[in-house]
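User: Now give one protein:

AI:
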Amino acid sequence: MGRTARKRKRRLKYRECDDFSLESLQNTILLKKSMQSLGWKNDSKLILKNFVSTGRGVSSLLNIKSNQKLIEIPYNLLITCANAFELDLIQNLCKASNKFKAQEILAVFLILEKHKNKNSKWKFYLDTLPEELPTLPWLCTEAEFSTYPSYLMAIVSKKKWDLEIGWERVEKSINSSWICPCCEQPLNRVVTLNAFTWGYVVVNTRAVYVDPGVAIKLFGRDLSNFLSDAPCLALCPFLDMFNHSAEANTRAELICVGDSWKYTLTTLTSYKKYRQIFISYGSHDNDKLFCEYGFFLIHNHLNNIRCSLEEVLSVSNISLNKKQRAFIENRCLPSDVYVSTTGLSFYLKALFYVLIKPDVEWGRVIYSEDYSSCDIMFMCLTIKKILSFKKAKFIEDLKKLKYVAVSKYALGVVDYMKNKIDLLDIILEVLDSYS
């Protein structure tokens, strides 16, 4: 082995265990150069790097202060439904069918632009998009899906259904005689199920929210004849390179600067130069992150285990009178009835208090959280029973899933379920400290 080969091998070994810059890659050079030619200014000196912990992400050559603008993207650099409707093929698609969702239209737009290759004015951005799909649990096979735990199946089935219905709408709208103008192939050989799935997932995992009123105003046309929902999605070059952290705190805004609109992202967290800069996709627990983006965080302080009224009643062996049931249904059963590593949520404690004190006025104690030690003891013991049952069920579900899991999407669920069981163990330890 020659000296050059040995040096190359050492560099590769170094890269496997350290972060390294992606600034010399052709795709990165083209992305930045194209964006700057269209009005983007990299005032924060942002650079792309590969991080051992997260893969591709964003850093800066400068120290980033709290309340500093990270990035401002001119509106003309955003891919919106307005861009999609500039294509005759998409207008024809809409004329041939009922209304589409914005996500479906953007998915088809990405397919057509990607197919143009060098002839697409968006090539600088399209080349940065991943070919490989993230480990979204709703991309699995039917056999794998049938073994998912019931609570996850309820979330995943909606996402799976939306994708399938979206493709059905698109497929039925493509006239068999339509020809792709750039290659003269039948259009249904360009817009295929695999291509649509890729485009749909890219939009689902990378799009940002924009004010639909502004989007319609800037387009100058009413899109309600074409869309069944609001044109509130946009793909934002470079901005979608930022990775998520539950600890990050950011503010995203579409603002008017002078005569032009810009999508602005401000960090409320400071970062040292060369360190990875994270943004927040929202206050999401792992259920949301996994089902929407295809990843979950090992340590996420927003993680929790949700509980139902039926589970609490079954374990506590308590019957409700009409007054209790009315109060619980109207006041104690919003979406945040859960237990986490910090203990029982406000509404879960309220639910318990109504159960164990049927003949008192509940409001004062609930809203001041002035529970007795006996009340807390009962709550913790009951929740421990519920969580132990859930853990046993999760372990059983995990065993079933392992037998059929083949795709990376189902294997991702296997890892996710293991993390869920670990969370249950941590919460059970926390509850032990209370009791």
